[in-house]
Amino acid sequence: MQTDGRKETPTERADRNWIELLQELRVMQTGVQILTGFLLTLPFQSRFADLDDYQRTVYLALVVTSVTATALIVAPVSVHRSLFRQQMKSDIVTLGDRITRVALGVLALVITGATLLVFDIVVGRTAGMVAGACVLVVLAVVWVVLPEVLRRRG
C-alpha cells in the first residue's frame, strides 16, 4: 500500500496512472493533429511558392518535428500494445511517462516554430524570431517552471 492516503495496490496504482497518462496523451494528440494538418496543407496554398529559402527550411523542419511529436505521442500506446498481458504495467507507465515528457518538449518546438513561421511570413523575420522566442518562454514557464514550483512546495 502507498503512503499518500490512497488505499491501492501497486497494480491498481499502475492502472490509474496509465489511465491518467492516456487522458493527457489525448489532449496532446488533438493539438498535434491540428497543427500537423495545418502544416501539411501549406504547400498547396498559392502563397507557398513565395516563401524564401529560410521559410522553406523552417517549414520542412516543422513538418519533421510535428511528425516526430505525433510518433512520440502514439508511442506509449504502441508500447502498451506490444507488452499487453506481460505483467509489465508499471514499466509501461514509467516508459510512457518518459516518452510523454519528450513529446511535450518536441510539441513546444513545433508550436514555437509554427509561431515563428507565421509571424515571419505575415510581419517579417525579426517579428517572427521575437514571437517564436516569446512563445518558447511562455511554454517553458507554464510547462516546466510552474510545475516545478508546485512540486517543490508539495
What would your notes on this structure say?
The model has no long low-confidence stretch (mean pLDDT 92). The chain contains four helices and no strands. The protein has 154 residues and is mainly alpha-helical. 21% of the residues are buried. Helix 1 runs antiparallel to helix 2 and helix 1 runs parallel beside helix 3.
Q: pLDDT below 50 for ≥5 consecutive residues: which ranges?
A: none
Distance between the termini: 21 Å
Structural class: mainly alpha
Please give the count of helices: 4
Question: Biggest β-sheet: count, sense, barrel?
Answer: none
Rg calculated over all Cα atoms = 19 Å
% residues in beta strands: under 5%
Q: What letter string, H or E per element, gives the SSE order? A: HHHH
Shape: elongated
- What fraction, in percent, of the residue positions are helical? over 70%
Q: Give me the count of strands.
A: 0
Roughly what is the average pLDDT, rounded to an integer? Answer: 92
